[in-house]
Specification:
Radius of gyration: 31 Å
Order of helices and strands: HEHHEEHEEEHEHH
Strand content: 15-25%
Strand order of the largest sheet: 2-3-5-7
Number of helices: 7
Number of strands: 7
Shape: elongated
Length: 165
């Protein structure tokens, strides 16, 4: 097959439509980035993002674990020596369960699933649902030292109603 340049020799417009289409930028849809958000958006990269991103040093690394997985694996964890069997229940430290638990800032227990065993959990933070489910099954939740410090900080950050009046 011959080259495109050779095929278009002798043609006045080289497949550009009418010879008038070469005048100005109207046939192209504008010059430069014109139409980048409308008719030529597929020729341009993603649009600019808005908002504020907190600096890395101000962000906390949060690892999560579902209360369901702690409940299901309690007997296996006790057999491995990660958890302790206490009477009818188990005492579990969530930082020992979560991968990289001692390297992240916060280990939070979430309330997904059901709790059938009596669990005594130790973690940096608990969701309300997780705490309710564990206590309803006869267990208890306890914050770590760093979790208590975080809770005290958040309590100090929120103004009391008595202070406002």
């Amino acid at each position: 097959m011959t080259s495109k340049k050779k095929r278009q020799r002798g043609s006045r417009t080289h497949s550009g439509g009418s010879h008038k289409n070469g005048r100005g930028a109207g046939h192209r849809g504008g010059r430069g980035n014109a139409g980048s958000r409308k008719h030529e958006m597929h020729h341009h990269g993603p649009w600019r993002k808005y908002g504020f991103t907190r600096p890395e040093e101000a962000q906390e690394d949060v690892a999560t674990v579902e209360v369901r997985s702690l409940d299901e694996d309690a007997a296996l964890l006790a057999a491995d020596g990660v958890a302790e069997a206490e009477g009818d229940g188990f005492r579990i430290d969530a930082r020992d369960i979560v991968e990289d638990g001692h390297e992240v800032d916060v280990v939070k227990v979430l309330g997904g699933g059901q709790v059938r065993n009596e669990l005594h959990l130790l973690a940096d933070d608990f969701s309300e649902a997780a705490a309710e489910k564990v206590e309803a099954a006869g267990g208890s939740v306890e914050l770590t030292v760093s979790g208590k410090e975080r809770a005290a900080e958040t309590d100090n950050d929120t103004p009391d109603e008595a202070d406002e009046s």
